[in-house]
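Reviewer 2 asked us to include a model.

Predict the structure of this chain.
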Amino acid sequence: MVDIFSKNDGPRREDVEAKRLLQGNMGTIHKLADQISNGEFSRSRAAMAKAKQEPKAEGLNIHILGGASKASEPSPVVRVSIDERVMIMDANSGKQMIFLGQLRLKDRVKFFVLATKENGFVSPLDPDIQTKLQDLNGIVIENEAIKEKFATVISERLGL
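Predicted model (structure tokens):
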């Protein structure tokens, strides 16, 4: 004797019953999930729903129609970036103009390393800039106030 099983079209009766049972008790299930996770379940669902929403424009949208804008004269400023790179950048465009060096950390002491071949930099500074900043090589930067003063000193020496 041979038993032949064939798949019915549509879901099985047990699956339909289980789905109906879960959907009918969804409020209780969510309440228990929130209770177990200390409210994190609802917060994560709200965050997912917010992430799926399209961004909404706030305020006025200004569109400037016409030809290309004029290239403005660069406005060089000394900046110490988040990743501790010391550079001269254009304040108008935000582009780096000259890389001066970087702040390094050794034995919990942060110090400035000038971009020279001796310090291991591939493209060293222009000799004129290097001579103006040579005595700053190895200077210790203890806090944010000193870092700001350091940038000011470089600006003054380079005539920015």
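The chain has two domains: 13-52, 76-158. The longest strand covers residues 96-106. We have added this to the supplementary material.
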